[in-house]
Amino acid sequence: MSPKPIPYYWSSVDWPRFVADYPPPPLFDQQMARTSDDELHELQEARFLQRMTEAWAVPFYRDRWTAAGMEPGDVRGLDDLAAIPTFTSEDLKRSAEALPPFGTHQTFALDAMATPLKIQSSGGTSGLPRPTLFDPVAWEVQAVQFARAFVAQGGEVGDVLQITLTNSLANTAWCASTAAMHWSGMVPLTTGSGAVTSSVRQLELAREWGTAGWVAFGEYLKILAETAESNGIDLRRDLRTRFIHTYLGVDTDGHLRRLLEEAWGVPVYDNYGTHEVGLIGYECRAQDGLHVNDDTAVLQIVDREGGRPLADGQAGNIVVTSLHRSVPPIIRYDLKDLMHRSSRAECGCGARTTKLSGFLGRSDEMVKLRATSVYPRAAQDTVQGDPRSTGEFLCVVDQVGEGISARERMTVRVEAKPGADGTALHADMVTRLKVLFGVAVDVEVVPSGALAPLTGLGGEGKVKRLLDRR
Description:
Elements: H1 15-21, H2 27-34, H3 37-56, H4 59-67, H5 89-98, H6 107-112, E1 118-122, E2 130-134, H7 136-152, E3 160-163, H8 172-183, E4 187-189, H9 199-209, E5 211-215, H10 218-230, H11 235-238, E6 243-246, H12 255-264, E7 268-274, E8 278-282, E9 290-292, E10 297-302, E11 316-322, E12 333-339, E13 341-346, E14 352-356, E15 367-369, E16 372-374, H13 379-384, E17 389-400, E18 407-416, H14 422-437, E19 442-447, H15 452-455, E20 466-468
Parallel strand pairs: 3-4, 3-5, 5-6, 6-7, 17-20, 18-19
Antiparallel strand pairs: 1-2, 7-8, 8-9, 9-14, 10-11, 11-12, 13-14, 15-16, 17-18
Helix pairs in contact: 7-8, 9-10, 10-12
């Protein structure tokens, strides 16, 4: 039996065609500006139908869709999108359990091995992380998405981009470094997190090597600012930072953004993405909503209870269909993230795309307290807005009582800055969080730094805001 031919990366994709299909900056803004709504719909529909054809050959989709009474050919365009059942990350986990280790949704790609593949993962808070395969198109499109964001946020050719996430099983750092080097002419400085390169050294490198842009989570940017202050480094005077690419979380009143912009003296830009589909939305210099990469994804906002599609401007779960992914296809993935979208319109930056709001919370973290739906991450704005707090918090949910009298209880642990009046902070948090949530919650004020072991602050990945002890 002769060995399989090696699928070389350089010859696995028609690169001129790739650039035409998924234009990097500045071509994307130019192309979107001159593309009419009808032309964009036609482009999206053609890519969607191709992904549907591919997905019918994948057991994960074929079995789910057949069980729902669908047949090939039932879906004839984007107008039929709502008729397709959604799936969640839990369905992907069950897929991997049914056909370990990669699942019924993507094992076909490894069996064929007709293209180079890379394994990245998402999740893993309990048990093994969830693996996802990337072929060159999926990999490079995500990099193009990030490159569009960097240029829209002020990145220029030759700029040093400091990436404070580690190139690991998670793919955000890889997307950023590939985007910088392959698609935007920037120079990636892959320092990794503070656990890899200390915060002091991060700042020293930025000062000596001329970092112009940063990729970092908001929580780590605060740590860097505190480290600079304690080490006599003036972020505004000593560094050459021009922009920051971050993920602000639930920052509807802008407390975290203002805190970071005041500390760093530069614009801070919010972004939103997911492991499987990439950077779905990004802010430009206008800071007026998140531009959607409309040529790579179709988004729906659906009612979080019944899955009914909602009109623009209404908040609900974001459901994404990838237009570029074949390995694996991603068709109507309910991310359980709460957002709202707005119709396609020209922005002050010149781009013409649909837009997303900032992140509003996660529907699967909803807690029912005395018949009221509470979303723990929504506490971010209230806690960040109090100068006596470090901005760090953790919502702890447990169950009290037994039988018919059992109920859920939520305690919001809030870190106080050294020297702050903890009694007054506690009283104000009780009042403000009751107004925010519409129901009273318990509050516990804890010392600065006390929550890091539970939230993961200073480590890799997103900071946890919910500890569910039910």
